Amino acid sequence: CWTIFSGILFLGSLRTNVAMLLVLALMFLSYLFLTIGELAGASTVLLIIGGWLAIASAIVAWYTALADMLRVSRGAFQLPMGWLG
Q: Vertex 66, ends 28 and 17: CA angle to 5°?
């Protein structure tokens, strides 16, 4: 269910920015690898790949959250988010 839901969120993010797109793409891929890993009889390699993709998704999500907070506060320091506009 989470794989399908994150895939739908990824499709919905195609018109936002690259940072959000990357977060949701990594999240979808991590859930996909974890799902396939479980369905393949708890394949250790696929589960490890899914776990590392989830960690990468979390790191990019923290960056995206910080960049968005800085953007909203209109401070002097801004982080690039790659607007697709």
A: 50
Tokens of 1: 């269910």
Long-range contacts of 55-59 (CB under 8 A, 24+ apart): 56/26, 56/30, 57/23, 57/26, 57/27, 57/30
CA distances from 28 to 37, 49, 53 (A): 14, 13, 9
What is the C-alpha to C-alpha distance for residues 85 and 66, in angstroms, rounded to an integer?
20
| pTM recorded for the entire structure | 0.87
- What is the Cα–Cα distance from 10 to 5, expressed in whole angstroms? 9
Separation of alpha carbons 23 and 61, rounded Å? 6
Render pLDDT for 4-44 as a digit per residue (tens, 0 to 9). Answer: 999 999 999 998 999 999 999 999 999 999 999 999 998 89
- Rounded-to-integer distance, Cα 78 and Cα 85, Å: 18
